[in-house]
Amino acid sequence: MKHRRYVRWVLLAMGLIAVIGLSGMNVYSLYALHENKVQNSVEKQKRQLLEYTNQVRSRFRHPVRNLWQLDMEVIQSSLDSPSHVHSGLLEIIDTSSRDSVFSEIYFSLPDCAACDYLGAIIWKYHRQRGQFVETTEYNQLVSDGLAMARTRMNALVHEYRWSTRVIFDTQNSMTIALINPANREIIGYLLFVINRDYLINSYMGPKLLDTFGEDHESGIVVWLHDWTKNEVLATTSPNVPYSYRSVDFIQNFPDLLNDWNLKAKFTSNPAITASQATLKRNLIVLGGAVFLLLSTFIFMFITAQRERSLAQRQSLFLANVTHELKTPLSVILAAGENLSDGRVSDPSRLKSYGSHIYNESLRLHNMIDRLLDVARINTQSVSIHKKKTDLAGLAHNYLQKKQGYFESYHVNVHFESEKDLPEILVDQHDMYSILDNLIDNAVKYSPDEKFLGIRIFKNGSRICLAIADQGIGISKESQKYIFDKFYRAEEAMTAHTRGHGLGLSIVKDLIHRNGGIVSVHSVPNKGSEFVLEFPIVYHFDNEATKNAQNNINQQEARHVS
Ligand code: ADP
User: Torsion over CA of 439, 440, 444 and 446, rounded to 10 degrees?
Assistant: First the structure.
């Protein structure tokens, strides 16, 4: 049986572990799925950022996309004067000059004197005339752009196989080196000055919004940032302030706009938010289910433990009761046998046999009474006859009646009561049973000096009766259980006192039925005090106040239950 009980618990625990394991795996897969979604979304946004920079680059190359198709030998031969420049080249230059992304276009021969000093003659494209004209008026940026292109090309040209090469000077200019691939000779440099205002405000800014949209839809905030000046040039979300701490990813432009880059902060888009909400919902449901399962398991475990200990106490009680019934019966039997045989004639022995029979029968009677009480309370068949009662008077009468009992047990009784206490509504027979049980215990569990203190006093809307002794006391742990059926504290067992663990459970039930409550205060080896509290009955003259009393009584009843 014991073995089976263990197997049952082990199987239950295994089932629980399996359910928790499965739930854990489920949560993990949900989490992984969500993470995967977030990762995919971020990867996609990173690809979009790269694509954006490539499109910006293509934007500059677009007007000059046909340049490589020109025959560079023919172009070279047309470059002896600005007015003779080959019409094919001029056509491309003219198209580019109409593109707002460029503000000016210059041409320099390969010797590039303008690279070395400002004021050297270079050619500038004159759109109205549709041709190049010589000029010495250009700024340092033009000279720097040409010089940069010349330096790069000088290093490159010997191994270069194509006819054009584009070189950017940050966001200032784009220079195209024209090369004769036949002899790998540079034939000149075309420099396009970049129109910064147009580029930012009319192209890159609007394109940022087109590509990424507002952050609450796309789940990304992008800033076009000049890192040399720490200046935001354009953004997808003007209401989100830029801070380097909030940047999650940086995308540079490939070989152009070197001082600028795209800075991105990944937020949540609607899909991610929905997935997050689903994950949260699932986590709550699974957490709740696991919590419920665990609580059920713990509850079952505790109840099973309690039932087991009750069963143990019950079987102990049965053994006790049998013993307790047999002992007085054997005494009565032996005494009765001796008397019936007529062997005893001495009057003093006759009296002693008679008192044995009387005392043991009384013990049996009391015990059976108590068992019947429990049975009646269990089947809810106790009828109550409540009466207005003066508790102090009742207790006083009771003590008077028990005078002989106290004397035979040498009990030092101390009674005190406040004067003119209001009445309470109780069944007086129940009150006697309650006092019987509590006073019996006080005497029984006081091995040496037997002291019994009874106090009656008013506490707010209640009348209290406290029964104190200076006996063996009850440990804090046992105090939780002494009102349970069949419970006997360790101290009671070691003190070898007789008992069945029923008295206090009867007391508690009777007190509750009479609208009262009971509490215990006890210190081991010092003594115990049981305090009973009952609601006061008020006297009223009219209906309204009677109702008020009913309310008070109802509240009291609720408080008690
Ligand atoms: P019992 O028949 O064992 O006295 P009760 O239900 O009356 O059963 O009491 C339950 C347990 O509470 C007792 O076994 C004892 O351990 C403890 N107890 C009750 N009253 C006292 C008291 N006055 N002093 C010490 N222990 C007490």
Answer: 10
- At 522, which amino acid appears? S
Q: How many CB atoms lie within 10 A of CB 437?
A: 22
**Hey, what amino acid is at 203?**
Y
Reported as a single tens digit per residue, the pLDDT across 239-266 is: 899 999 999 999 999 888 989 999 999 8
Q: 71 by DSSP, 3-state: which?
A: coil
| Entry pTM | 0.52
- Vertex 186 angle, CA 182 and 190, to 5°: 125
Is the beta carbon of 446 within 6 A of some atom in ligand 1? no
* Cβ density class 36-64: b for 16+ within 10 Å, e for less: ebbeebbeebbebbeebbeebbeebeebb
Specify the pLDDT at position 217: 76
DSSP 253: P
Cα gap 287→293, rounded to integer Å:
10
- The finding on whether 503 has its CB within 6 A of some atom of ligand 1 is yes
How does pLDDT run across 59-92, given as a tens digit for each residue?
A: 999 999 988 888 998 999 898 888 889 999 999 9
Ligand 1 close to Cβ of residue 169 (< 6 A)? no
263 pairs with which residues across the strands? Answer: 223, 250
Which phi and psi angles does 29 have, rounded to 5°? Answer: -65, -40
Position 558, amino acid: R
- Tell me, using a 6 A CB cutoff, whether residue 509 lines ligand 1: no
In the chain, the N- to C-terminal Cα span, in Å, equals 38
Residue with structure tokens 């009843």?
557
Mutate to test the pocket of ligand 1, among 316, 323, 482 (most ligand atoms within 8 A of CB): 482
Residue 175, classed as helix, strand or coil, is: strand
Q: Which atom of ligand 1 is nearest to the CA of 446?
A: 24
Q: Which parts of the chain register pLDDT below 70?
A: 1-2, 269, 320, 324, 377-382, 495, 539-561
**What is the phi/psi pair of residue 281, to 5°?**
-60, -45
Q: Is residue 33 a contact partner of residue 271, using CB atoms and an 8 Å limit?
A: no
Q: What are phi and psi of 387, to 5 degrees?
A: -140, 150
CA-nearest of 188, 133, 140 to 163 is 188
Q: What is the pLDDT of residue 559?
A: 45
